[in-house]
Protein backbone atom coordinates (compact mmCIF):
# COMPACT_ATOMS: atom_id res chain seq x y z
CA UNK A 1 0.00 0.00 0.00
CA UNK A 2 1.03 3.63 0.21
CA UNK A 3 4.51 4.04 1.63
CA UNK A 4 3.68 7.17 3.61
CA UNK A 5 0.70 5.57 5.26
CA UNK A 6 2.51 2.37 6.23
CA UNK A 7 5.43 4.16 7.89
CA UNK A 8 3.51 6.57 10.15
CA UNK A 9 2.66 5.56 13.70
CA UNK A 10 -0.27 7.98 13.87
CA UNK A 11 -3.26 7.04 11.65
CA UNK A 12 -3.69 9.45 8.67
CA UNK A 13 -6.93 11.00 9.92
CA UNK A 14 -6.96 13.68 7.20
CA UNK A 15 -6.83 11.12 4.39
CA UNK A 16 -9.42 8.95 6.16
CA UNK A 17 -11.77 11.93 6.59
CA UNK A 18 -11.65 12.82 2.88
CA UNK A 19 -12.15 9.18 1.85
CA UNK A 20 -15.09 8.77 4.24
CA UNK A 21 -16.81 11.89 2.86
CA UNK A 22 -16.47 10.45 -0.65
CA UNK A 23 -17.75 7.02 0.45
CA UNK A 24 -20.62 8.70 2.32
CA UNK A 25 -21.76 10.53 -0.84
CA UNK A 26 -21.64 7.29 -2.87
CA UNK A 27 -23.55 5.39 -0.17
CA UNK A 28 -26.09 8.20 0.24
CA UNK A 29 -26.81 8.11 -3.49
CA UNK A 30 -27.69 4.40 -3.27
CA UNK A 31 -30.05 4.84 -0.33
CA UNK A 32 -31.73 7.79 -2.04
CA UNK A 33 -32.63 5.61 -5.01
CA UNK A 34 -34.37 2.72 -3.18
CA UNK A 35 -37.46 4.74 -2.20
CA UNK A 36 -37.56 6.24 -5.71
CA UNK A 37 -37.87 2.89 -7.56
CA UNK A 38 -41.72 2.83 -7.64
CA UNK A 39 -41.76 6.43 -8.96
CA UNK A 40 -39.20 5.55 -11.65
CA UNK A 41 -41.28 2.46 -12.60
CA UNK A 42 -44.34 4.68 -13.10
CA UNK A 43 -42.57 7.56 -14.88
CA UNK A 44 -40.45 5.50 -17.28
CA UNK A 45 -43.12 2.77 -17.66
CA UNK A 46 -40.95 -0.18 -16.62
CA UNK A 47 -41.78 -3.18 -14.41
CA UNK A 48 -40.08 -4.46 -11.23
CA UNK A 49 -37.83 -6.95 -13.06
CA UNK A 50 -36.56 -4.10 -15.30
CA UNK A 51 -36.15 -1.41 -12.64
CA UNK A 52 -34.08 -3.85 -10.54
CA UNK A 53 -31.32 -3.26 -13.11
CA UNK A 54 -30.67 0.11 -11.44
CA UNK A 55 -29.51 -1.96 -8.47
CA UNK A 56 -28.11 -5.06 -10.18
CA UNK A 57 -26.52 -3.04 -13.03
CA UNK A 58 -24.67 -1.05 -10.38
CA UNK A 59 -23.53 -4.34 -8.83
CA UNK A 60 -22.57 -5.71 -12.25
CA UNK A 61 -20.09 -2.89 -12.88
CA UNK A 62 -18.79 -3.17 -9.30
CA UNK A 63 -18.33 -6.92 -9.76
CA UNK A 64 -16.33 -6.37 -12.95
CA UNK A 65 -14.13 -3.52 -11.70
CA UNK A 66 -13.51 -4.34 -8.03
CA UNK A 67 -11.16 -7.30 -8.80
CA UNK A 68 -8.81 -4.80 -10.45
CA UNK A 69 -8.75 -2.52 -7.38
CA UNK A 70 -6.16 -4.69 -5.58
CA UNK A 71 -3.77 -3.99 -8.49
CA UNK A 72 -4.74 -0.28 -8.59
CA UNK A 73 -4.18 0.16 -4.82
CA UNK A 74 -0.71 -1.41 -5.08
CA UNK A 75 0.30 0.69 -8.12
CA UNK A 76 -1.23 4.16 -7.60
CA UNK A 77 -1.48 6.69 -4.78
CA UNK A 78 -4.60 7.19 -2.67
CA UNK A 79 -4.90 10.73 -4.08
CA UNK A 80 -4.95 9.66 -7.72
CA UNK A 81 -7.39 6.79 -7.18
CA UNK A 82 -9.74 8.92 -5.08
CA UNK A 83 -9.90 11.76 -7.61
CA UNK A 84 -10.48 9.37 -10.55
CA UNK A 85 -13.19 7.54 -8.60
CA UNK A 86 -15.02 10.74 -7.60
CA UNK A 87 -14.82 12.16 -11.15
CA UNK A 88 -16.36 8.99 -12.61
CA UNK A 89 -19.07 9.02 -9.92
CA UNK A 90 -19.87 12.72 -10.58
CA UNK A 91 -20.11 12.25 -14.38
CA UNK A 92 -22.48 9.32 -13.82
CA UNK A 93 -24.60 11.45 -11.47
CA UNK A 94 -24.86 14.20 -14.09
CA UNK A 95 -25.91 11.69 -16.79
CA UNK A 96 -28.55 10.09 -14.52
CA UNK A 97 -29.91 13.53 -13.59
CA UNK A 98 -30.73 14.40 -17.22
CA UNK A 99 -32.06 10.93 -18.13
CA UNK A 100 -35.49 10.80 -19.78
CA UNK A 101 -35.24 7.14 -20.78
CA UNK A 102 -34.41 4.04 -18.78
CA UNK A 103 -31.28 3.08 -20.83
CA UNK A 104 -29.72 6.52 -20.24
CA UNK A 105 -30.55 6.35 -16.51
CA UNK A 106 -28.97 2.89 -16.34
CA UNK A 107 -25.87 4.19 -18.15
CA UNK A 108 -25.54 6.95 -15.56
CA UNK A 109 -25.86 4.44 -12.73
CA UNK A 110 -23.14 2.26 -14.28
CA UNK A 111 -20.79 5.25 -14.52
CA UNK A 112 -21.48 5.98 -10.85
CA UNK A 113 -20.68 2.35 -10.08
CA UNK A 114 -17.30 2.58 -11.83
CA UNK A 115 -16.31 5.27 -9.32
CA UNK A 116 -17.88 3.56 -6.32
CA UNK A 117 -16.04 0.30 -7.18
CA UNK A 118 -12.70 2.00 -6.48
CA UNK A 119 -13.88 4.00 -3.45
CA UNK A 120 -14.86 1.34 -0.92
CA UNK A 121 -11.85 -1.05 -1.28
CA UNK A 122 -9.54 1.98 -1.19
CA UNK A 123 -11.04 3.24 2.09
CA UNK A 124 -11.06 -0.23 3.68
CA UNK A 125 -7.41 -0.80 2.75
CA UNK A 126 -6.27 2.55 4.20
CA UNK A 127 -8.09 1.70 7.44
CA UNK A 128 -6.52 -1.76 7.67
CA UNK A 129 -2.96 -0.45 7.32
CA UNK A 130 -3.64 2.53 9.62
CA UNK A 131 -4.84 0.73 12.76
CA UNK A 132 -3.39 -2.25 14.70
CA UNK A 133 -5.52 -5.40 15.02
CA UNK A 134 -6.54 -4.67 18.63
CA UNK A 135 -7.95 -1.22 17.73
CA UNK A 136 -9.49 -2.15 14.40
CA UNK A 137 -12.96 -2.99 15.74
CA UNK A 138 -13.43 0.47 17.28
CA UNK A 139 -12.04 2.15 14.14
CA UNK A 140 -14.36 0.15 11.89
CA UNK A 141 -17.23 1.03 14.26
CA UNK A 142 -16.65 4.77 13.77
CA UNK A 143 -16.36 4.14 10.02
CA UNK A 144 -19.69 2.28 10.17
CA UNK A 145 -21.33 5.12 12.14
CA UNK A 146 -20.41 7.65 9.45
CA UNK A 147 -21.54 5.41 6.58
CA UNK A 148 -24.74 4.37 8.38
CA UNK A 149 -25.70 8.04 8.56
CA UNK A 150 -26.37 7.75 4.80
CA UNK A 151 -29.22 5.18 5.13
CA UNK A 152 -30.53 7.21 8.08
CA UNK A 153 -30.78 10.38 5.99
CA UNK A 154 -31.29 8.87 2.52
CA UNK A 155 -34.78 7.32 2.50
CA UNK A 156 -36.44 10.24 4.36
CA UNK A 157 -34.71 12.84 2.20
CA UNK A 158 -35.56 10.82 -0.91
CA UNK A 159 -39.23 10.60 0.12
CA UNK A 160 -39.44 14.35 0.69
CA UNK A 161 -37.76 15.16 -2.66
CA UNK A 162 -40.01 12.75 -4.61
CA UNK A 163 -43.16 14.19 -3.02
CA UNK A 164 -42.19 17.75 -3.92
CA UNK A 165 -40.02 17.33 -7.03
CA UNK A 166 -39.23 14.95 -9.88
CA UNK A 167 -37.10 11.87 -9.00
CA UNK A 168 -34.27 13.33 -11.13
CA UNK A 169 -33.77 15.91 -8.39
CA UNK A 170 -32.16 13.09 -6.35
CA UNK A 171 -29.21 13.21 -8.73
CA UNK A 172 -29.22 17.01 -9.08
CA UNK A 173 -28.99 17.20 -5.29
CA UNK A 174 -25.90 14.93 -5.13
CA UNK A 175 -23.99 16.53 -8.05
CA UNK A 176 -22.81 19.81 -6.38
CA UNK A 177 -21.83 17.93 -3.20
CA UNK A 178 -19.76 15.45 -5.26
CA UNK A 179 -18.00 18.37 -7.04
CA UNK A 180 -17.14 19.95 -3.66
CA UNK A 181 -15.71 16.59 -2.46
CA UNK A 182 -13.50 16.43 -5.59
CA UNK A 183 -12.16 19.92 -4.83
CA UNK A 184 -11.50 19.00 -1.16
CA UNK A 185 -9.65 15.87 -2.26
CA UNK A 186 -7.65 17.77 -4.88
CA UNK A 187 -6.30 20.31 -2.35
CA UNK A 188 -6.08 18.21 0.83
CA UNK A 189 -4.80 14.82 -0.33
CA UNK A 190 -1.00 15.08 -0.63
CA UNK A 191 0.17 11.47 -0.20
CA UNK A 192 2.97 10.29 -2.49
CA UNK A 193 3.49 6.85 -3.92
CA UNK A 194 6.82 5.26 -4.66
CA UNK A 195 6.93 4.01 -8.25
CA UNK A 196 5.90 0.36 -8.34
CA UNK A 197 6.94 -1.68 -11.38
CA UNK A 198 3.88 -3.91 -11.78
CA UNK A 199 1.69 -4.35 -14.84
CA UNK A 200 -1.95 -5.30 -15.12
CA UNK A 201 -2.46 -8.65 -16.82
CA UNK A 202 -5.00 -7.74 -19.51
CA UNK A 203 -6.05 -11.35 -20.12
CA UNK A 204 -6.80 -11.76 -16.39
CA UNK A 205 -8.91 -8.58 -16.48
CA UNK A 206 -10.77 -9.93 -19.53
CA UNK A 207 -11.44 -13.29 -17.85
CA UNK A 208 -12.51 -11.54 -14.64
CA UNK A 209 -14.90 -9.23 -16.51
CA UNK A 210 -16.49 -12.09 -18.49
CA UNK A 211 -16.59 -14.33 -15.39
CA UNK A 212 -18.11 -12.01 -12.81
CA UNK A 213 -20.03 -10.07 -15.47
CA UNK A 214 -21.54 -13.21 -17.02
CA UNK A 215 -22.70 -14.61 -13.67
CA UNK A 216 -24.16 -11.26 -12.55
CA UNK A 217 -25.82 -10.60 -15.90
CA UNK A 218 -27.30 -14.09 -16.08
CA UNK A 219 -28.83 -13.97 -12.61
CA UNK A 220 -30.04 -10.40 -13.13
CA UNK A 221 -31.75 -11.33 -16.42
CA UNK A 222 -33.61 -14.24 -14.80
CA UNK A 223 -36.23 -11.88 -13.33
CA UNK A 224 -37.46 -10.79 -16.77
CA UNK A 225 -36.51 -13.71 -19.05
CA UNK A 226 -37.07 -16.71 -16.74
CA UNK A 227 -34.62 -19.37 -15.58
CA UNK A 228 -35.39 -21.62 -18.57
CA UNK A 229 -34.12 -19.02 -21.06
CA UNK A 230 -30.91 -20.01 -22.93
CA UNK A 231 -29.96 -16.36 -22.57
CA UNK A 232 -29.91 -16.78 -18.78
CA UNK A 233 -28.25 -20.16 -18.27
CA UNK A 234 -25.95 -19.55 -21.27
CA UNK A 235 -24.43 -16.36 -19.80
CA UNK A 236 -24.15 -17.99 -16.34
CA UNK A 237 -22.34 -21.00 -17.89
CA UNK A 238 -19.91 -18.74 -19.81
CA UNK A 239 -19.37 -16.73 -16.61
CA UNK A 240 -18.61 -19.83 -14.51
CA UNK A 241 -16.15 -21.23 -17.08
CA UNK A 242 -14.35 -17.86 -17.39
CA UNK A 243 -14.24 -17.46 -13.61
CA UNK A 244 -12.71 -20.93 -13.10
CA UNK A 245 -10.12 -20.13 -15.79
CA UNK A 246 -9.43 -16.76 -14.10
CA UNK A 247 -8.92 -18.41 -10.67
CA UNK A 248 -6.56 -21.08 -12.07
CA UNK A 249 -4.55 -18.38 -13.88
CA UNK A 250 -4.27 -16.26 -10.71
CA UNK A 251 -3.02 -19.20 -8.65
CA UNK A 252 -0.13 -19.75 -11.12
CA UNK A 253 0.96 -16.09 -11.32
CA UNK A 254 3.72 -14.55 -9.17
CA UNK A 255 1.87 -11.19 -9.05
CA UNK A 256 -1.83 -12.06 -9.50
CA UNK A 257 -4.42 -9.39 -10.21
CA UNK A 258 -6.60 -10.87 -7.45
CA UNK A 259 -4.90 -13.25 -5.02
CA UNK A 260 -7.15 -16.24 -4.27
CA UNK A 261 -4.57 -17.52 -1.76
CA UNK A 262 -6.44 -15.38 0.81
CA UNK A 263 -8.81 -18.35 1.06
CA UNK A 264 -6.02 -20.42 2.62
CA UNK A 265 -6.82 -18.48 5.81
CA UNK A 266 -9.88 -20.21 7.35
CA UNK A 267 -11.39 -17.23 9.22
CA UNK A 268 -11.24 -15.08 6.10
CA UNK A 269 -12.89 -17.83 4.03
CA UNK A 270 -15.62 -18.26 6.66
CA UNK A 271 -16.27 -14.52 7.04
CA UNK A 272 -16.45 -14.14 3.27
CA UNK A 273 -19.07 -16.91 3.04
CA UNK A 274 -21.20 -15.41 5.83
CA UNK A 275 -21.18 -11.86 4.45
CA UNK A 276 -22.11 -13.16 0.99
CA UNK A 277 -25.14 -15.01 2.40
CA UNK A 278 -26.20 -11.98 4.48
CA UNK A 279 -25.90 -9.73 1.41
CA UNK A 280 -28.17 -12.06 -0.56
CA UNK A 281 -30.90 -11.62 2.05
CA UNK A 282 -30.23 -7.92 2.75
CA UNK A 283 -30.24 -6.49 -0.80
CA UNK A 284 -33.52 -8.18 -1.62
CA UNK A 285 -35.19 -6.67 1.45
CA UNK A 286 -34.01 -3.21 0.38
CA UNK A 287 -35.83 -3.72 -2.93
CA UNK A 288 -38.98 -5.55 -1.73
CA UNK A 289 -39.95 -3.32 1.22
CA UNK A 290 -40.30 -0.07 -0.84
CA UNK A 291 -42.38 -1.96 -3.46
CA UNK A 292 -44.68 -3.31 -0.74
CA UNK A 293 -45.23 -0.05 1.16
CA UNK A 294 -45.73 2.16 -1.91
CA UNK A 295 -47.28 -0.10 -4.56
CA UNK A 296 -49.49 -2.32 -2.37
CA UNK A 297 -50.16 -0.14 0.67
CA UNK A 298 -50.18 3.20 -1.17
CA UNK A 299 -47.96 4.80 1.48
CA UNK A 300 -46.43 8.07 0.26
CA UNK A 301 -42.72 8.18 -0.62
CA UNK A 302 -42.12 10.55 2.30
CA UNK A 303 -43.75 8.18 4.81
CA UNK A 304 -41.97 5.23 3.19
CA UNK A 305 -38.67 7.02 3.77
CA UNK A 306 -39.59 7.88 7.37
CA UNK A 307 -40.45 4.21 7.93
CA UNK A 308 -36.81 3.27 7.19
CA UNK A 309 -35.33 6.07 9.35
CA UNK A 310 -35.50 4.47 12.85
CA UNK A 311 -33.84 1.25 11.58
CA UNK A 312 -31.01 3.19 9.95
CA UNK A 313 -30.54 5.27 13.11
CA UNK A 314 -30.38 2.09 15.20
CA UNK A 315 -27.73 0.69 12.85
CA UNK A 316 -25.71 3.93 12.96
CA UNK A 317 -25.96 4.15 16.78
CA UNK A 318 -24.95 0.51 17.21
CA UNK A 319 -21.96 0.65 14.84
CA UNK A 320 -19.33 2.09 17.27
CA UNK A 321 -20.79 0.02 20.15
CA UNK A 322 -20.53 -3.15 18.04
CA UNK A 323 -16.94 -2.21 17.18
CA UNK A 324 -15.96 -1.99 20.86
CA UNK A 325 -17.84 -5.21 21.70
CA UNK A 326 -15.97 -6.93 18.87
CA UNK A 327 -12.58 -5.82 20.26
CA UNK A 328 -13.60 -7.21 23.66
CA UNK A 329 -15.55 -10.41 22.89
CA UNK A 330 -14.70 -11.32 19.27
CA UNK A 331 -17.03 -11.92 16.34
CA UNK A 332 -18.87 -15.20 17.07
CA UNK A 333 -21.28 -14.14 19.83
CA UNK A 334 -22.14 -10.92 17.96
CA UNK A 335 -22.65 -12.68 14.63
CA UNK A 336 -24.79 -15.55 15.98
CA UNK A 337 -27.01 -13.17 18.01
CA UNK A 338 -27.38 -10.73 15.12
CA UNK A 339 -28.14 -13.46 12.58
CA UNK A 340 -30.83 -15.02 14.79
CA UNK A 341 -32.52 -11.61 15.14
CA UNK A 342 -32.19 -11.00 11.39
CA UNK A 343 -33.61 -14.43 10.46
CA UNK A 344 -36.61 -14.17 12.81
CA UNK A 345 -37.53 -10.65 11.64
CA UNK A 346 -37.14 -11.65 7.98
CA UNK A 347 -39.61 -14.47 8.65
CA UNK A 348 -42.10 -11.97 10.12
CA UNK A 349 -41.73 -9.93 6.92
CA UNK A 350 -42.98 -13.01 5.06
CA UNK A 351 -46.32 -12.71 6.92
CA UNK A 352 -47.34 -9.26 5.61
CA UNK A 353 -51.00 -8.48 4.87
CA UNK A 354 -52.79 -5.52 3.32
CA UNK A 355 -53.70 -4.47 6.89
CA UNK A 356 -50.21 -4.64 8.48
CA UNK A 357 -49.86 -1.43 10.48
CA UNK A 358 -47.29 1.25 9.74
CA UNK A 359 -46.01 1.11 13.36
CA UNK A 360 -45.47 -2.66 13.10
CA UNK A 361 -43.42 -2.19 9.91
CA UNK A 362 -41.26 0.51 11.56
CA UNK A 363 -40.57 -1.66 14.65
CA UNK A 364 -39.90 -4.82 12.62
CA UNK A 365 -37.49 -3.04 10.27
CA UNK A 366 -35.70 -1.41 13.22
CA UNK A 367 -35.20 -4.76 14.99
CA UNK A 368 -33.96 -6.29 11.71
CA UNK A 369 -31.42 -3.47 11.30
CA UNK A 370 -30.35 -3.94 14.94
CA UNK A 371 -29.54 -7.57 14.17
CA UNK A 372 -27.73 -6.67 10.96
CA UNK A 373 -25.54 -4.12 12.79
CA UNK A 374 -24.07 -7.01 14.81
CA UNK A 375 -23.11 -9.04 11.76
CA UNK A 376 -21.54 -7.27 8.78
CA UNK A 377 -18.65 -5.23 10.21
CA UNK A 378 -17.56 -7.68 13.00
CA UNK A 379 -17.59 -10.69 10.64
CA UNK A 380 -15.68 -8.88 7.86
CA UNK A 381 -13.12 -7.38 10.26
CA UNK A 382 -12.50 -10.73 11.96
CA UNK A 383 -11.76 -12.35 8.60
CA UNK A 384 -9.45 -9.57 7.42
CA UNK A 385 -7.58 -9.60 10.74
CA UNK A 386 -6.16 -13.05 9.93
CA UNK A 387 -4.53 -11.91 6.68
CA UNK A 388 -0.88 -10.82 6.47
CA UNK A 389 -0.61 -7.08 5.65
CA UNK A 390 0.37 -7.56 1.97
CA UNK A 391 -2.90 -9.45 1.39
CA UNK A 392 -5.12 -6.56 2.61
CA UNK A 393 -5.77 -5.08 -0.87
CA UNK A 394 -6.67 -8.55 -2.18
CA UNK A 395 -8.83 -9.39 0.85
CA UNK A 396 -10.84 -6.17 0.64
CA UNK A 397 -11.18 -6.46 -3.16
CA UNK A 398 -12.29 -10.10 -2.82
CA UNK A 399 -14.86 -9.25 -0.14
CA UNK A 400 -16.29 -6.33 -2.10
CA UNK A 401 -16.43 -8.30 -5.35
CA UNK A 402 -18.15 -11.35 -3.89
CA UNK A 403 -20.56 -9.21 -1.86
CA UNK A 404 -21.65 -7.49 -5.09
CA UNK A 405 -22.05 -10.88 -6.80
CA UNK A 406 -24.01 -12.26 -3.82
CA UNK A 407 -26.20 -9.14 -3.64
CA UNK A 408 -27.01 -9.34 -7.35
CA UNK A 409 -27.73 -13.09 -7.16
CA UNK A 410 -29.90 -12.59 -4.07
CA UNK A 411 -31.79 -9.69 -5.62
CA UNK A 412 -32.31 -11.52 -8.93
CA UNK A 413 -33.32 -14.74 -7.18
CA UNK A 414 -35.85 -13.12 -4.85
CA UNK A 415 -37.27 -10.77 -7.51
CA UNK A 416 -37.71 -13.86 -9.72
CA UNK A 417 -39.45 -15.67 -6.84
CA UNK A 418 -41.69 -12.62 -6.35
CA UNK A 419 -42.49 -12.32 -10.08
CA UNK A 420 -43.17 -16.02 -10.76
CA UNK A 421 -45.18 -16.53 -7.56
CA UNK A 422 -47.16 -13.35 -8.30
CA UNK A 423 -48.14 -14.76 -11.71
CA UNK A 424 -49.12 -18.11 -10.15
CA UNK A 425 -51.19 -16.47 -7.41
CA UNK A 426 -52.84 -14.10 -9.92
CA UNK A 427 -54.00 -17.06 -12.04
CA UNK A 428 -55.30 -18.97 -8.99
CA UNK A 429 -57.10 -15.96 -7.47
CA UNK A 430 -58.63 -15.01 -10.84
CA UNK A 431 -59.95 -18.56 -11.36
CA UNK A 432 -61.49 -18.60 -7.88
CA UNK A 433 -63.04 -15.16 -8.42
CA UNK A 434 -64.60 -16.19 -11.76
CA UNK A 435 -66.12 -19.32 -10.15
CA UNK A 436 -67.84 -17.22 -7.50
CA UNK A 437 -69.40 -14.76 -9.97
CA UNK A 438 -73.16 -15.09 -10.31
CA UNK A 439 -73.53 -12.61 -13.19
CA UNK A 440 -71.44 -11.10 -15.97
CA UNK A 441 -69.50 -8.18 -14.40
CA UNK A 442 -69.44 -4.72 -15.95
CA UNK A 443 -66.22 -3.28 -17.35
CA UNK A 444 -65.80 -1.06 -14.27
CA UNK A 445 -66.27 -4.01 -11.90
CA UNK A 446 -63.92 -6.15 -14.00
CA UNK A 447 -61.22 -3.44 -13.95
CA UNK A 448 -61.51 -3.14 -10.16
CA UNK A 449 -61.33 -6.94 -9.80
CA UNK A 450 -58.16 -7.07 -11.92
CA UNK A 451 -56.50 -4.41 -9.78
CA UNK A 452 -57.45 -6.18 -6.53
CA UNK A 453 -56.22 -9.53 -7.88
CA UNK A 454 -52.93 -7.98 -9.03
CA UNK A 455 -52.33 -6.40 -5.60
CA UNK A 456 -53.24 -9.55 -3.68
CA UNK A 457 -51.04 -11.69 -5.94
CA UNK A 458 -48.08 -9.30 -5.59
CA UNK A 459 -48.45 -9.31 -1.79
CA UNK A 460 -48.30 -13.10 -1.70
CA UNK A 461 -45.35 -13.06 -4.10
CA UNK A 462 -43.44 -10.65 -1.81
CA UNK A 463 -44.24 -12.86 1.20
CA UNK A 464 -42.87 -15.92 -0.59
CA UNK A 465 -39.70 -14.01 -1.52
CA UNK A 466 -39.15 -13.05 2.13
CA UNK A 467 -39.70 -16.69 3.14
CA UNK A 468 -36.88 -17.74 0.80
CA UNK A 469 -34.72 -14.94 2.28
CA UNK A 470 -35.42 -16.38 5.74
CA UNK A 471 -33.99 -19.73 4.65
CA UNK A 472 -30.91 -18.02 3.20
CA UNK A 473 -30.28 -16.10 6.44
CA UNK A 474 -30.68 -19.30 8.51
CA UNK A 475 -27.73 -20.88 6.66
CA UNK A 476 -25.50 -18.03 7.88
CA UNK A 477 -26.38 -18.85 11.54
CA UNK A 478 -24.93 -22.34 11.15
CA UNK A 479 -21.71 -20.97 9.61
CA UNK A 480 -21.36 -18.29 12.31
CA UNK A 481 -21.08 -20.99 14.99
CA UNK A 482 -17.60 -21.82 13.63
CA UNK A 483 -16.18 -18.28 13.98
CA UNK A 484 -13.04 -17.96 16.14
CA UNK A 485 -11.17 -14.80 17.10
CA UNK A 486 -8.60 -14.29 14.34
CA UNK A 487 -4.93 -13.53 14.89
CA UNK A 488 -2.78 -12.13 12.10
CA UNK A 489 -1.09 -15.02 10.30
CA UNK A 490 2.61 -14.99 9.57
CA UNK A 491 3.45 -13.88 6.05
CA UNK A 492 5.14 -16.81 4.18
CA UNK A 493 7.33 -14.39 2.19
CA UNK A 494 8.53 -12.60 5.35
CA UNK A 495 9.21 -15.97 7.01
CA UNK A 496 11.32 -17.14 4.03
CA UNK A 497 13.31 -13.89 4.07
CA UNK A 498 13.97 -14.23 7.80
CA UNK A 499 15.09 -17.87 7.34
CA UNK A 500 17.54 -16.82 4.59
CA UNK A 501 18.97 -14.07 6.80
CA UNK A 502 19.31 -16.50 9.74
CA UNK A 503 21.05 -19.06 7.52
CA UNK A 504 23.54 -16.49 6.20
CA UNK A 505 24.29 -15.22 9.72
CA UNK A 506 24.87 -18.81 10.89
CA UNK A 507 27.25 -19.45 7.96
CA UNK A 508 29.25 -16.32 8.80
Automatic annotation (TrEMBL):
Entry keyword Transmembrane: yes
Chief location category: membrane
Keyword annotations: Cell membrane, Membrane, Transmembrane, Transmembrane helix, Transport
Keyword set includes Lyase: no
Membrane topology: Multi-pass membrane protein
Membrane-traversing stretches: 12-33, 53-73, 80-99, 111-131, 138-157, 169-188, 200-219, 231-248, 268-292, 304-321, 333-352, 465-483
UniProt-listed PROSITE patterns: MFS (PS50850)
Molecular function GO terms recorded: transmembrane transporter activity
GO cellular component: plasma membrane
Locations listed in the record: Cell membrane
Span of domain Major facilitator superfamily (MFS) profile: 15-488
Family (UniProt): Belongs to the major facilitator superfamily. EmrB family.
Name recorded for this polypeptide: MFS transporter
Provenance organism: Cytobacillus solani
Taxonomic classification: Bacteria, Bacillati, Bacillota, Bacilli, Bacillales
Amino acid sequence: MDHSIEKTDRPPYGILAVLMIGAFIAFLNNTLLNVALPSIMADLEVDASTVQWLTTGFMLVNGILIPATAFLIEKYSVRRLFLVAMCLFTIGTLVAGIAHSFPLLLAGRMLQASGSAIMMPLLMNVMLVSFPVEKRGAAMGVFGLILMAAPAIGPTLSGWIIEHYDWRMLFHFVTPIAIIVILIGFFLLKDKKEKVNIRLDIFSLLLSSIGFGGILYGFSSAGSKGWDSPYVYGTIAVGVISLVWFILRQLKMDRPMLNFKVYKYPMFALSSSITMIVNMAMFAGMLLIPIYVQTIRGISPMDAGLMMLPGALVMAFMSPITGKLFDKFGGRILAVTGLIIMTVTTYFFSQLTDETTYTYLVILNSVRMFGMSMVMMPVSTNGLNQLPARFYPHGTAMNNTLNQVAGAIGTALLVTVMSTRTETYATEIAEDAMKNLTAQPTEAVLAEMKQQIAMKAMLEGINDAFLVATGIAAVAIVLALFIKRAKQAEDPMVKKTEEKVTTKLAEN
